[in-house]
# Entry
Amino acid sequence: MKFSYNEIRWVILLSALGIVSLILWNTNVFFDKFKTLEREKMEIWATAQTEFMSSTDELNQGPLILQIFQSNKDTPMILVNKDQSYWVNNMDESILNQPDEIAKKITEFINQNKPILLKHNNALIATLYYGDAPILNKLKYYPLGLLLILILFSAILYFYMKSVKASEQNKLWAGMAKETAHQIATPLSAIMGWSNLLKSKGADPQITQEMDQDIERLHLITDRFSKIGASPKLSLQPLLKTTKEGVLYLKKRLPNHIELSIDDTIEEQQIALNKALYFWCLENIIKNAIDAMQGSGSVELSFKSNELFCYVYVKDQGPGIPQNKIKAIFKPGYSTKTRGWGLGLSLAKRIIEEYHNGKISVIETSPKGTVFELKFRKGVATQE
# Structure
């Protein structure tokens, strides 16, 4: 039986969670037992201290009590006598001259352990406040360390699985795109032959001219699909001129109620582009805008530049994008159309960000329209 990556991921995550949970449970049990033993040890120490403080017989103050006193080398404690004098052990003795610090430590110890009352003949002679031993303090943070390791492990596994899935999707897309380009090329050659035959037979030039334009368009589409999965060649191009060229073909085929305009008041700028892919990106964004406006309205392209970057803005008059959907629109498969494949904006994002090292984003959206921003670095050298 072959398991999917998703199933493997969940098996690993659940196994890791089970192991960490078992370790945490055992750590908690050990912590409770250790704390109980620590309490018993301090009660023995308190009993010895009571005997020491209340006895006047030197025989009762012999080696056994001394040995009990010396056995506690780790647990910090404060002994408050009935006359409110202090005695500390396993702590910096300079604290004895700082009543405020003593009060803070006593409060801290009370939060950690219940004080032990030292009584003789039912009379209170002292109160013992003690904190957790250093090993207990370390055990407190041990579960947090395990949880941090689990979180880091889960994050690494998640991003690894995500990258594997993305790699598989990219290979699938590239294969489909190249196969599409191959399939288009065969009938395209035949159409070119029929166009030449019509010209030789004296057909209406307007018909053959339109056919030649569509043939050129099919060549462009084939070129686009053939570039998917490969590193495209970028060359310095005039941004304004190239953009006008890219929308010229599309403008002739827009619905009658769509107005497409370009603000060309900006000074021409040179940026590194792959023209075929850049045209495809513009086409996807503009078609998306037209769909959002339901075939009626205006789309305006404008430009801006600074010392490092050039910006292309595509503004429509659609109903806007919900704020919680802005990131989703660039993901493959997301579409608000019943027959949409949800590839247009995801392809535009890949073209701009992966192939041109730029950035595409929605910078403004409202019921009055949406503005897409395409960001490019100026004057990047040609690359393969």
